[in-house]
Write a structure and sequence with these properties.
single chain, 236 residues, alpha/beta, Rossmann fold, seven-stranded mixed beta sheet, two-stranded antiparallel ribbon, 7 helices, 23% strand, globular, binds S-adenosylmethionine
Length: 236
């Protein structure tokens, strides 16, 4: 893991991230097929568990326009016909976009009423505000979220200002026995907008610990690794 040498002040960092997010607001790096793969891993683990736990609630950190929140909600919890339809209708034009956006928006969760089928997001950019997206920083999330989420997903660790602080905060909100789905660009050099670079599987394991459940060094994009870790926190 490499960190960009010139540290910004907190205000500069927040401003830089929001400006960057605004410039690419319609872009979504995550595809419905990606989330289908993660959902298959989680469902298989659940079926094999001696004492199965519900998968959710789920939180997506650094979610930009929130499309990944809609994909996770559908691919984890919607009827199969809707999951298949969303995958079939999705378009890939450098970025993944919804074929029928209104169909993806059906059944959004509420931040103030989390349950095992909730999927919510966290995003710095105020343009992302929705009833299922909390606007704020993923390194300073609500105190009431301690030990809450069965799944934390993020492909935005590269945007951390302080990797140790972000990792501690992501671990805080995962409930014991929950999963971290962590995606990162291979060999990316750190920059002012992406202050963390050069992430690898050993970095993910050092930062978060837990049990390695799944690793693939190429998702729907070349040069993009996907890791799933089960975070025990002393749970059986
Ligand atoms: C690399 S983009 C990923 C967006 C989305 N997950 C995707 O796949 O297209 C990073 C997003 O994280 C947001 N972000 C950066 N730093 C953040 C922070 N400290 N807290 C919350 N969101 C942050 C940015 O505003 C941006 O929208």
């Amino acid at each position: 893991m490499k960190q960009f040498p010139a540290q910004q002040s907190r205000d500069e960092y927040l401003r830089t991230q929001v400006q960057r997010s605004d410039a690419k607001f319609d872009y979504c790096k995550v595809s419905a097929d990606d989330v289908r793969r993660y959902a298959d891993v989680l469902h298989l683990r659940q079926r094999r568990a001696k004492r199965p736990q519900p998968i959710g609630p789920v939180v997506c950190l650094g979610t930009r326009n929130g499309r990944e929140v809609d994909i996770f909600r559908t691919q984890l919890f919607a009827p199969h016909w809707r999951q298949r339809l969303m995958r079939a209708l999705e378009r890939d034009r450098k970025s993944f976009t919804a074929g029928v956006p209104m169909l993806e928006a059906i059944g959004r969760s509420r931040l103030d009423a989390l349950d095992e089928h909730s999927v919510v997001g966290v995003e710095l950019n105020p343009r992302a505000a929705r009833r299922d997206i909390w606007v704020g920083s993923f390194d300073a999330m609500p105190a009431v979220w301690t030990d809450t989420f069965g799944v934390v997903f993020s492909n935005s660790f590269d945007q951390s200002q302080d990797p140790a602080r972000s990792a501690a905060e992501w671990l805080r909100v995962i409930r014991p026995g929950g999963y971290l789905i962590f995606c990162f660009a291979n060999d990316a050099a750190p920059t002012e907008t992406d202050p963390i670079g050069g992430l690898s599987l050993p970095d993910a394991r050092d930062l978060f610990g837990g049990e390695l459940v799944y690793f693939q060094d190429r998702g729907s994009r070349a040069g993009y690794s996907e890791v799933i870790l089960r975070i025990n926190k002393g749970a059986a």
